[in-house]
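Reading a protein record of the kind used here takes little practice once its layout is understood. The fold follows as a row of integers, each naming the local backbone shape at the matching residue. With these conventions in mind, the following record can be read line by line:

_____
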Amino acid sequence: MLEVAYSLRVAGYRLLDTAGFYKVSNLKLAVSRIRYQMLIVISIALFSSCQVRETKLPIYGEREVVGTDTVYHTIAPFAFVDQDSAWVTNETFKDKIYVTDFFFTTCRTICPIMKTQMLRVYEATAEMPDVKILSHTIDPEYDTVTLLHDFAKRLGVESNRWHFVTGVKDSIYKIAQTSYFATAMEDKTEPDGFIHSGAFLLIDKKQRIRGKYDGTKEEDVNRLIIDIKRLRRDED
């Protein structure tokens, strides 16, 4: 009888120990799960903050610190005439984002590709009233206002969204090289007599350069379209 009682007591302690073990195990498991969930939340927060920082596009060009302010490179004052004989100046793009390039209508090399890609930008920004396009001819002697008007008409674009401009040759070359950091010049060794960059430049509402893209490459233009949307969010 005593042996049976002893056996029952031992069995009882084992049951208690087993129950206690499961309680401790469950507690440890719960703590582990909480820690895991906290790690996930912290990781998502850190990732999100990194994503926010990544949406800020760089600002190109020289900068100067004046007191507590940083003064960035901006597009110099300009005045050209577009396909509708209207003056196009910096004021035309006040509070606007715009994409700009350099071309000429008789170009047989990269210009046709560039215009096909710029049409993609034009179509992608159709519902963005604060986004415009500015294309400068680098052959103003041939590319008259009338010719640019016909060129824009063949592309099927509206002049209030896409300006094709002409003007004094030296002024066009100067603004290309000193404001947009793009190549645009006469070169008699070239098949068409000119050399120019295939770059598309993204300009923000403060007329600062925020991106440079190869206008002959679809993947680069895809990136430009994405960056336009990012820039619009940043400047809202």
Remarks:
- The chain has a mean pLDDT of 85.
- Helices lie at 2-54, 111-124, 145-155, 169-179, 218-235.
- Residues 74-235 form a domain with the Glutaredoxin fold (CATH 3.40.30.10).
- The two ends are 87 Å apart (CA to CA).
